[in-house]
Amino acid sequence: QGELVDSGGGLVHPGDSLTLSCTASGLALEYYAIAWFRRAPGLAQEFVGTVSWNGGVSRYADSVKGRFTISRDNTDNTVYLQMNSLKPEDTAVYYCAAKLTTVSIYSHEYPIWGQGTQVTVSS
Predict the structure, then answer these.
(1) 65 alpha carbon, distance to own chain's centre
(2) pLDDT band for position 5 (50/70/90)?
(3) Based on the number of CB atoms within 10 Å of its own CB, is 74 exposed (0-12), middle (13-18) or buried (19 or more)?
(4) Do residues 14 and 121 lie in contact, with contact meaning Cβ atoms separated by under 8 Å?
(5) What is the CA radius of gyration of the chain?
(6) What DSSP designation does 31 have?
(7) Residue 1: is its pLDDT beyond 80?
(8) Average pLDDT score over the chain
(9) Are 91 and 119 in contact, with CB atoms under 8 Å apart?
């Protein structure tokens, strides 16, 4: 089984933008739906967004809709999470996850996970 590597996290100010990357090794991402989840300190894991294998279907949590966008470059085996207008409540560890076939908002349906990347939004 392949693995996913999350990267791109950091410390930013409210209103800033940040792009996270999820790069696969040992598996062809073109066959997988990809989702992003996040976990803030003391809170349960939260669904952020998901995109189908070809980018044709996407879903976003209401809390990020209109600010976050998932895109993918299957030739580069990488999926991106573009985050705009960041807020302090977006502070969390962000994880990408992969599953074959259809998209899902449920974390238990994703068998392959990245290690997570920390995003901190603070003034």
Answers:
(1) 13
(2) very high
(3) middle
(4) yes
(5) 13
(6) G
(7) no
(8) 95
(9) yes
Tell me which amino acid residue 43 is: L
Contact between 18 and 72 under an 8 Å Cβ cutoff? The reply is: no
Residue 51 to residue 69: CA distance in whole angstroms: 10
Structure tokens at 1: 């089984």
What's the rounded Cα separation, in Å, for the pair 113 and 110? 7
Say if residue 63 is exposed, middle or buried (CB neighbours under 10 Å; 0-12, 13-18, 19+): middle
Please calculate the CA angle 80-107-34 and round it to the nearest 5 degrees.
25
Q: What is the pLDDT of residues 36-77, one digit of tens each?
A: 999 999 999 999 999 999 888 999 999 999 999 999 988 899
Terminal C-alpha separation, the chain: 40
Give dist(CA 9, CA 18) in Å, integer: 8
